[in-house]
Amino acid sequence: MNAPNKTNKPDLPIPFVNGDDLDPTVAAIFANLQQSMGMVPTLYRVMGHAPAVLEASQTWTKAIGKDQDLRLKEIAYIHTSALNHCEYCLEFHRKVGAKAGLCEKEIALLEEIDREDWSAFAPKEQNIILFARAWTLRLEIGRPLIDALVRDFGPKGTVAIAAAVHQANWTNRFSALFVPKPGAASS
Question: Which residue range(s) make up the domain with 60?
Answer without folding.
Answer: 24-65
